[in-house]
Specification:
With about 500 residues, the chain is mostly helical. The strands form two sheets. A three-stranded parallel sheet has the order 5-1-6, with helices on both faces. Strands 2-4-3 form a three-stranded parallel sheet, with helices on both faces. It contains 20 helices and six strands. This is Ascorbate-specific PTS system EIIC component.
Amino acid sequence: MINNLITGIMAVWSFFANNILTQPAYMIGFIVLIGYLLEKKPWYDSLAGFLKATIGYMILMVGSSGLVNGFRPILTGLKDRFHLTATVIDPYFGQNAVTDGVMKTFGRSFGDVMILLLIAFVFNILLVRFSKYTKLRAVFTTGNVQVQQAATGFWILLFAIPSLNRIEVLLVMGVLLGLYWAVGSNMTIKPVQELTDGGGFAVAHQQMFGIALVAWLSDKMKKSNIQKGKRSATKLEDVSLPGFLRIFNENMVATAILMFLFFGIIMLVLGENYFHQVFIETKGVSGLAKGASFFFYILTTSLGFAVNLAILQLGVRTFVGELTESFTGISDTILPNSVPGIDVAATFAFGEQNAVTIGFLFGALGQFLAIGALMLFHSPTIIIAGFIPLFFDNAVFGVIANNRAGAKAAMILPFFSGIIQVVGAALISTWIGMSKFGGYLGMFDWDTVWPGFTVILKYLGYVGIVVVALILILIPQLQYRKDPKNYFLMVEDYEAYKEKTK
């Protein structure tokens, strides 16, 4: 009887996880539908909200996938062109590395990752449900990211404390990951609310601690300028370029030109024959056909960046309004004082659009310099830049930094982020053994925060589990103590929050 019940529960969970939780478009649509039903809206309005939110997120994913799929072959081509044995920093390469290596390295099944995800997700919801005590206000809803992080977290815990049995691994990492999701997305609420002027969401992705750090450093840079008697920092949107340079004031034009220069150089280094080979290997899906113009192939690929970015921004505008409005029903009834944590790409439709491109370019410069240093000093692991960390981390850092401290911060902070991504990924992936399988998650939090947690877990063992949990539990308590009167007001009524904190 009990076995049948457990089997039934796991079957329901498997259906939900495979078709909704790990499919962000349906997860967002599902949240909107539940929110509107809790608000007792007519079924046809609830259905319309579900469809609009789902389609909007699908539009976002078209843009996001176009960015990744269009440029991943170019960056990984550097590995093939120079015959490097290297680790690609990319969430999907990282997930594949766990899939390929976890049985060979630890004798464990990758199937446990989905159970771990369930425990972490339920724990995240419970933490937000009891926000009165935990001070946590954001539910992590980005399912594809949850799978990637559950996979890497699974590997890290097996490496750090190999004596844990199966149930202990699932419970311990489920709790730690659920805490990280709740605490990390909660840390992004203030910078995102200020960026979006009360957009009503948080970021649930791979650089949540990074966003909080960039916001804090940007404020420090702004304060330093004021103390030095300088006027407020010049933001990218306030820059008016003279003469022919005025074309760079237009976001699409600036993005197209800069991407043409950036990727044009890389594609010329790879050579025309490389893209002919890609065309053959992919049976015409990508690459350059024989006889086609290499120049126009470079131009089309580069312009595709601007196209996909515009699609992504359209998707954000389509679903964010529905999500924000409907989540009121959930926060009023099931999860008080809460907001949804969603994909970082949602921030790109707010603030100065050129900050997205500037953040990406300066982050790329930092990454490539760091990769050059690894090769120069004969690092045991050479990192290949993956497009997702290269773009999604550093673009949001550029947007946040520009919004708070201006153009200078939007250049400096992503640049240092790029260096940190490469050096941090090289160190942690080599140490824990994932580099042997060709990939590591490689995004900002997993190059900084999680290596720190891994050290604690590895050298303190069971005590380390408690230490990491206490660190995460303490963070929202400290946030709350800074402004207890307005802490929850920020998500309940942002207009009232602004009035009280003028």
